[in-house]
């Protein structure tokens, strides 16, 4: 039995728009909105496509394969609940499907050579409120 997650979770500004993302996360899937008019996959969820403004959207599962775009090493967390987690790598990753996401990279040896390296997503942990990638 999993222990209950006690750290703060993100609070979506529009819970109805993000519900499919969080429901998929509970199943350890990574899903994002895709415009059926122009085929653009995007994140964060919104009611219209940011490329063509169409409202013809569907939710699709994405691969989770990504490249590391940028990162920083967190030495002092913004929230005291994460004090025991430091240091950790806070990153921006670009999925093969296009969208960029914030993520953390647990157990990664920090080096400037990390940027633009390929990474893969491990099963999404929805209770952590963030994506987790292995080294």
Protein described:
This protein is mainly beta. 9% of the residues lie in helices and 27% in strands. It folds into two domains: 14-62, no CATH class; 63-135, OB fold (Dihydrolipoamide Acetyltransferase, E2P) (Beta Barrel), CATH 2.40.50. A hairpin with a 4-residue loop joins strand 4 (88-95) and strand 5. The chain starts with 14 loop residues before the first helix and ends with a strand. The model has no long low-confidence stretch (mean pLDDT 81).
Name the descriptors.
9% helix, 2 domains, single chain, mainly beta, 135 residues, OB fold (Dihydrolipoamide Acetyltransferase, E2P)
Order of helices and strands: HEEEEEEE
Please give the alpha-carbon distance between the first and last residues: 26 Å
The assigned CATH architecture of the largest domain is Beta Barrel
Average pLDDT over all residues: 81
Structural class: mainly beta
Q: What is the total tally of β strands?
A: 7
Radius of gyration: 16 Å
CATH class value of the largest domain: Mainly Beta
Strand order of the largest sheet: 6-3-4-5-7
Whole-number total of structural domains:
2
Can you count the helices? 1
Short description:
The protein is mainly beta and 135 residues long.
Chain-wise SSE layout:
Elements: H1 15-26, E1 31-35, E2 57-61, E3 66-74, E4 88-95, E5 100-105, E6 118-119, E7 131-132
Parallel strand pairs: 5-7
Antiparallel strand pairs: 1-2, 3-4, 3-6, 4-5
């Amino acid at each position: 039995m999993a222990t209950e997650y006690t750290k703060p979770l993100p609070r979506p500004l529009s819970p109805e728009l993000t519900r499919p993302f969080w429901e998929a996360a509970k199943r350890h899937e990574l899903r994002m909105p895709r415009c059926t008019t122009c085929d653009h996959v995007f994140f964060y969820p919104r009611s219209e496509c940011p490329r063509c403004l169409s409202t013809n959207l569907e939710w699709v599962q994405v691969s989770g394969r990504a490249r590391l775009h940028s990162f920083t090493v967190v030495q002092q967390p913004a929230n005291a609940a994460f004090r025991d987690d430091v240091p950790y790598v806070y990153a921006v990753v670009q999925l093969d499907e296009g969208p960029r996401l914030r993520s953390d990279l647990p157990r990664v040896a920090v080096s400037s050579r990390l940027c633009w390296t390929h990474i893969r997503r491990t099963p999404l942990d929805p209770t952590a409120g963030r994506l987790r990638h292995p080294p």
